[in-house]
Amino acid sequence: MPLPDDLDHDKLAEAALAILALAAFNSRHESRAWKGLDWDVLDLLYRRGWIEDPVGKAKSVVLTEAGERLAPELLARHFAKARP
C-alpha cells in the first residue's frame, strides 16, 4: 500500500529508523535489522541513506553508518518519557 500523502513522511522515516534500530543486531561487523516494515517505509529509509538497499533475498537490512549514528537520537526525540 502506498504511503498516504497526508502523513509527514519525515516523521514517519525518523520513527521507523528508531524502531528498526531497536531490533538491530551485529553481523559481520555491520548492524542489521529484520525487514519487518512496509516496503514503502523501507524505501524512505533507503532514500535518506539510513539503510542500504532493502531489495534482495536477505531477510534483513543493513543500517548505514549514518543510520546507526542517528537512530539513538531519533529514539530519544520521539519516544523518551518527559522528565518531571
Secondary-structure blueprint:
Elements: H1 9-22, E1 25-27, E2 30-34, H2 39-47, E3 60-62, H3 65-79
Give the key terms.
three-stranded antiparallel sheet; 45% helix; Arc Repressor Mutant, subunit A; alpha+beta; 84 residues; 3 helices
Distance between the termini: 40 Å
Number of domains: 1
Question: What is the number of beta strands?
Answer: 3
CATH architecture: Orthogonal Bundle
Q: Encode the helix/strand succession as letters.
A: HEEHEH
With helices defined by DSSP (H or I, 4 residues minimum), what is the helix count?
A: 3
Arithmetic mean of pLDDT: 92
Task: Describe this protein's structure.
This protein is α+β, with helices and mostly antiparallel strands. It has a single domain (9-79), classed as Winged helix-like DNA-binding domain superfamily/Winged helix DNA-binding domain (Arc Repressor Mutant, subunit A, Orthogonal Bundle). The protein has three helices and three strands, in the order αββαβα. A hairpin with a 2-residue loop joins strand 1 (25-27) and strand 2. It is globular and about 45 Å long.
